[in-house]
Specification:
7 helices, 30% strand, alpha/beta, 6-stranded mixed β-sheet, 24% helix, Metallo-beta-lactamase, Chain A
């Protein structure tokens, strides 16, 4: 498996590219901006983007989806509970003094426990509502397990729950009931900021640790 994570867009969302070395298929998690950079990086590794996997539909995680799909034909994937946020992309950006084109239709609604096959690599969908009603994480278990946590879990913190559709009780339940059941050694790629691990957050996170 190949993967790279780098900040994109106006709020520095951590975008990740997952690729299969053998087949050249790839998925992009949270194309929140800088679509040309995403496309060029994938191409530089000989990868063809097949899926755009969104952890949730806040504008800073979806802004680049339209342009990447138009260039690559990749499928836009989202949980159905965040469709309303996705449809209100223009209103979201207006709150930050920005504008956005109308988003393209969602191609596939992702469901809890579904496995997305990317060539010979696969990632499991974990439904983790709280930051938004349709928040997802993407888990890749194995020798070096990785969790793409979006804005559900951060180093020493959790995602905001004071935005549209947020719930603190739900996000804590999602983290403790779903994410903290993963192997302690799992590396956590958050939606913003540095990486962490499941063990570190169990031990030190003041919102959900202990």
């Amino acid at each position: 498996m190949l993967f790279a994570t780098f900040p994109v867009g106006p709020l520095g969302c951590n975008c990740s590219i997952i690729g299969c070395k053998e087949t050249g298929e790839a998925a992009v998690i949270d194309p929140g901006g800088d679509p040309e950079r995403i496309i060029e990086l994938a191409a530089s590794h000989g990868l063809k983007i097949k899926y755009l996997l969104h952890t949730h539909a806040h504008f800073d995680h979806v802004l680049g989806a339209k342009a990447v799909k138009e260039k690559t034909g990749a499928s836009i994937c989202l949980h159905k509970e965040d469709q309303w946020l996705y449809d209100n992309l223009a209103k979201q950006t207006a709150l930050f003094g920005m504008t956005a084109d109308a988003p393209l239709p969602v191609d596939q609604y992702l469901q809890d426990e579904e496995e997305v096959q990317i060539g010979k690599v696969k990632t499991k969908v974990l439904y983790t509502p709280g930051h938004t009603p349709g928040s997802l994480c993407f888990s890749m278990e194995g020798k070096d397990s990785v969790l793409f946590a979006g804005d559900t879990l951060f180093q020493g913190s959790v995602g905001r729950t004071d935005l549209w559709g947020g719930s603190f009780d739900q996000i804590v339940k999602s983290i403790k009931g779903r994410l903290f059941t993963l192997d302690d050694s799992t590396e956590v790629i958050s939606g913003h900021g540095p990486n962490t691990s499941i063990w570190s957050e169990k031990r030190d996170n003041p919102f959900v640790g202990g």
